[in-house]
Structure prediction request, 510 residues.
Amino acid sequence: MTGPFIEIADVSKEYPGVVALEGVALTVAPGEVVGLIGENGAGKSTLMKILGGVLAPTSGSIIVDGISHDRLTVKSSMAAGIAFVHQELNLFDNLSVAANIFIGREPRQRRARWLVAEKRMNAMATPLLQQLGAEFAADAPLSALSLAERQLVEIAKALSVDARLIIMDEPTSSLTMTETARLLDTIRRLRSRGVSVIFISHRLAEVQDVADRVVVLRDGQRTGELRGADILPDSMIRHMVGRDIKVRHRPASQPPGDSLVEFRAICTPQWPASPVDLTIRAGEITGLAGLIGAGRTELAQVMFGLEQPVGGEIVVDGEVRRLRSPRDAIAHGIYLIPEDRKRSGLVLDFSIAGNVTMADLGRYSRFGLCNRQAETLAAQKQKRALDIRCHDLAAPAGSLSGGNQQKVVLAKWLSMAPRLLIFDEPTRGIDVGAKSEIYQLMRDLSDRGVGILMISSDMEEVIGVSDRVVVMHEGRIAGELGREALSEAAIMSLAVGRARHPSQFELMET
Prediction:
C-alpha cells in the first residue's frame, strides 16, 4: 500500500438542530480494506453519502489522488472509481441478471445500435458471477433469485465498473455462511489487485476476518481506530457503544406453558415431500436454525397464513385449524415480524404512528375515519414501552434507524396482545446496542407467557437467546437441541445433515 487514494479531512455535516458528523477524518489507501463500524445513527451512511457525492459536507474536504474538493458530485465520485453495494438492493425484477449488472451500460448490436447485444452482455456477466461463486446463469430472470442471490448480483454490478474503491454496506446480511466466505475471499482478491474496499458491517467477526484497519464512529464522531491484532470484537464493541455487550442467555422466569401451535406432518409448497412436526409453547423462546433455503421462512409463512400447506394439519390451542390467511392467524394472536422489515413489515412513507396502528385500524376508526388522537395515544404508549427513538411520531417510518424500525414493527403487534410472535431474522442489519434491546424485549415477552419462534442465521444469537433450538435441513427437522446441548458444532452439524444424535456432537468437540 502507498499513500492515500481517498482522504476525508475534518468533515462535518449539520442539519437544523442535528449534528450528523463532527470533524471526521478517514483515509483509504490503494488495496486496503477498511472496516467502518458504529451503531445505527452513528453517521456511517452520512459519511458514505458524502463520499458518493449524494450529500455535500457542511465543512471539511475530500481529497482524491492528492486533489482537494469541497464536495464530490455523484458524477465525479463515479469518475474517481467509487462504487457502492447498498444494503437495500437496487435491482429490477423484470430484467435478467446480466441486464441488472449492466443497467444503463448495455452493449449494443453493431448494425442496430438501438438493440441490446444480449449474448455479449451475458458473456461479459458470466466471469463476474463465477468470481463470486454464483450458481445461477447470467441470463436467469432476477425474479427467480433468492434474496441472497440478488445480493451477489448487486456485488457483481459494482465489480463490473472496474472500481478503484468499492463501498460495501452490510453485503453479507442476507448471505449463507458459504456465500459469505466466498465474498470475503473476493474482497481479498480485490485487495491483491489494488482495489480498495470500505466494509460496513454489524457482523464483527467478518470485519475482524477481512479488514486491515477498522475505523469506529459514535454519535457522528470518530472514536477510535484499530489495526492488525487489535481488531477484536470486544475492542470494537467498546469503541462503538462505550461498554461491553455480549449475547448472554437469560433463563426464563418459569417453565414453558401449554402448546400454542403444533405442526403435525406439515408439508410446505416448497418442500412437499418433507413433513415437519413442530410444537411452539407459551413462555418459551424456540430458535429455528438452518442454512438459507432450508425451509425456515416457508414454515413461518405457513404458520402466519401466507402460504397454505400441501399436507398435514395445524393445531392451535388444542384444536385443528385452517389458517387460510394472515387474518386467520391474527385472529388467534399469531403475528409475524418478517425478515425484510422495509418491504414486508412497514410502509416507509407512512407515519410512525400510522405504522403502529395499521394492523388494527378498526380500533382507531369510526365510520371509516381514523381517530388521529387515539392513534397518536396508542403510538406514544408503544414509543415509551419500547424506547423508540424519534422526535416526532408523525415522521415517516423510513426516517428511522434499522433498530428503531424493527421496534415499530414490534410495536404494531404488541398493541394487539400477541400470543405467539414469529421473529424472522430479528436483528438483520441492526447494531449491537439495538440487538441487546431486542433480545431483552423477547425475553420480557416470553416471561409474560408469549410464545416466541425466532428464525436466525446468526449463530451467537441462536445460542445466546434460545431456550430450545430446532434445526432444519432441506425442508425437514434435522434435530432438536435443549439448552444444555447447544453449541455451534451441534447446530451446524444438523444444519448440513451430518449428525442426528447428541452423542455425535460430544465427539466432535473433544
Q: What stands out?
A: Residues 53 and 73 are 4 Å apart (CA to CA). Residues 500-510 have pLDDT under 50 and may be disordered. The longest strand covers residues 18-28. The first helix runs from residue 44 to 51.
